[in-house]
Amino acid sequence: MADAVHIALAGNPNAGKTTLFNYLTGAHQHVGNYPGVTVEKKEGVYLHEGQKVQIVDLPGTYSLTAYSVEELVARDYLVNEQPDVVVNIVDASNLERNLYLSCQFLELGMPLVIALNMIDVAEKRGISIDTEKLSQLTGVPVIPIVARTGKGVVELLETVQTVSRADARSQTLIRYGVDIDEALRKLIPIIEEHKLLVETYPASWTALKILENDEQIVAKVMMKNMTVGQQLIDCGEVLTRHLQNTLEAYPETVIADHRYGFVRSVLRQGEVTQVTEQDRLYASDQIDKIVTNRVAGPLLMAAVLLGLYSFTFNWSGFLVDGLGMFFDLLGGLTETILPDGPVKSMIISGVIDGVGGVLGFVPIIMFMFFGIAVLEDSGYLARVAFMMDRIFHFFGLHGSSVMPFIISGGIAGGCAVPGVLAARTLRSPKERMATLLTVPFMNCGAKLPVLTLIIAAFFPNHQAGYLFLATLVAWLVALMAAKFLRMTLLRGESTPFVMELPPYRVPTGKGLLIHTWERTWQYVKKAGTVILGISILLWGMMTYPGLPSEKVAEFEAMRQSAAVSGFADRTADGATDGTTALLRINQLEAEAGLRYSIAGRIGTSLEPISRFAGFDWRTNIALVGGFAAKEVIVSTLGTAYSLGEVDPDSTTSLKERLAGDRHWNPIAALAFLSFIMFYSPCFVTVVAIAKEAGSWKWAFFSMGFNTVFAFSMAVGIFQLGTLLGLG
Amino acid sequence: MMNLRKMQTGQSGIIASVKIGGSLGLRMREMGLVPGTEITVTGRAPLYDPVKIRIHGQTLTLRNSEADYIEVDIKVETDPAEEKF
User: Fold this and answer.
1) Closest approach of A410 to chain B, Cα-based (Å)
2) Residue A293 and residue A289: Cα distance in Å, rounded?
3) Contacts A–B by Cβ distance under 8 A
4) Which residues of A491-513 are buried (b: 16+ CB within 10 A; e: fewer)?
5) What is the DSSP letter of A227?
6) Per-residue pLDDT tens digits for A494-547
7) What is the pTM of this model?
8) Is the ipTM of this complex over 0.90?
9) Of B20, B54, B56, which has the smallest distance from its Cβ to A97's Cβ?
10) Element (H, E) at A78
């Protein structure tokens, strides 16, 4: 058997690439990422007449410029991996735009086969295509197929085999008009003479890219040879000036227009369109009249977003509860089986809680991805972006940012972890990063018990009002922060909103399940190990070093004496006092232990600084604990106030304790509230940000930026409030 | 000739020029916004921006600030009854 043939599937989004890929590889596929970026890389294998064929599904693109990650990934893959054949999937019912991409494969000189997909749909619409003629005009084989049913795929595979054996590179020449052609004739010999990048790119392609002012290629050329590179760029600039003077156009646009010219001339000779295309989008247009209507549209959107939200968090509830119960059970079991000691403590508080932390999110993430897949596959998500863009664009974001914001807690009670993952639907890198970094400002479900506790303790008469205010402030701060980031660190042109509104479609069950499963599994696989590790680390910080032995002995002695006196009390007036005293000592010991631990020491040593915001060491420890998960703030506060572990759901004792403490007052409470809302995301979110942003740099940035921001806000509130004597 | 931003919903024409280069210019072209193409405004978002257009039998959206670069030769006003088609 000969070596495996290696083919790449390329084409426009929605042209049917993935359908063909799934049809060919079935279950034999592997989803990963391209190194350093978050673009999905799908690979698979199939057998054709005993021959192994390796197949890669490249990201869907409209073009091969250097302007988007997907396009860069696709073209880098083609030149670096040199697949034996590129199968270009072309939507037969939208030939003009699809063939524009094909032109660029021809320019790149790849061994190409065009798969004319959805030929049945095109025929139904009265478009008849002369594939022979098309093949003759483009210089590459053209095979009509229907990827959905597999019609024509065998013939396609045979053609792929033939082309892979022939080692034929396409030789089709596209003309770009006199000015460009002349410039190319000048550049190509120079590139060939100095052997610039010729081992990777055809000289004609490099020349074309220099004229198009393609960032990546210009940089590569300059790195290889500065002087010649400058000479080439100068040639390009002469051309640009000339085109500006004569046509008021740029070289890249003239080149693009001539590609279309080539496509149109091919179509004129090879394709006959008979029927106008009004009918196809008739249904979609009618739906859009309601769905994007000025009044009904936003109302419907509010309902859909609320529906998605409640689907994600409420419907997944039984699974979340089930998993929670399972881990409680497991913890209980370990409690009884293992002997007391550090191993037991680590397994329960580090490992089981850590694994529980990873898996606890899985049902929510699964439901969210399913809900988003429904909205995405049906075409509604694009309409949401369309309707919301005016608002979000103002803050430097994108219409599609609305989804991550809602999921993260735009409706109070969400979760930033699925929210961060939901930002995947954003295609524009800067807007996406700004979204990733600002969604943790929303009030997630874990912050709510803390907010409720503080509000109930200090503002008992306005609970609902304050909670609503917290939601509004979260939105305001998140959007302003996004604007700030887009004006500073993430400065740059906003990504164009020139995008396709796909016709409405009924999503297929299989597609939805594959989508949901792939994305959820990626979360478990990629984030799981890191989260487990950090969970154990945090457990260690809250536990070690343990109290010195003389301290432990002291508490032990206290317990002894309490037991004795309790026994004496019992003979006098009942049983309660002795046990209460014992419990009290245990709580005091827990408090002392926490203060003695690394987390406690951090909290104590930060007190001189945190004083400015009105936080004492107890609050600090609780906030350190909150990095594990925000709901931990409540239980840690409980331990720090030596009330024992406080259940976040019933906090009466802690509430009264706080309200009566001399360190606390309404102003300190407000400062604390604002800090909790905006400080570092919990570490699960931080891990998710690192994975989605493709670098830990941004994850650490979000920890630092958010904490500094939240602290300044808390200090501002506390100092101003104290100054005005409101405390 | 009319700027795309000023076109009303339902108005059609032929793209006369797309006067922008760089990433936006290329993005517009790769999505099919090239001179000589028939274009119809099919709607606007609730806040009047972005605009929704029909081109090559597909629906595209673009912001008003992006539409500014596109000049359209408007089709001679047709009978409103005919426009319904």
Assistant:
1) 21
2) 6
3) 131
4) eeebbbbbbbbbbbeeeeeeebe
5) H
6) 888 888 888 888 887 877 887 788 778 877 876 677 777 777 888 888 888 888
7) 0.79
8) no
9) B56
10) helix A69-81
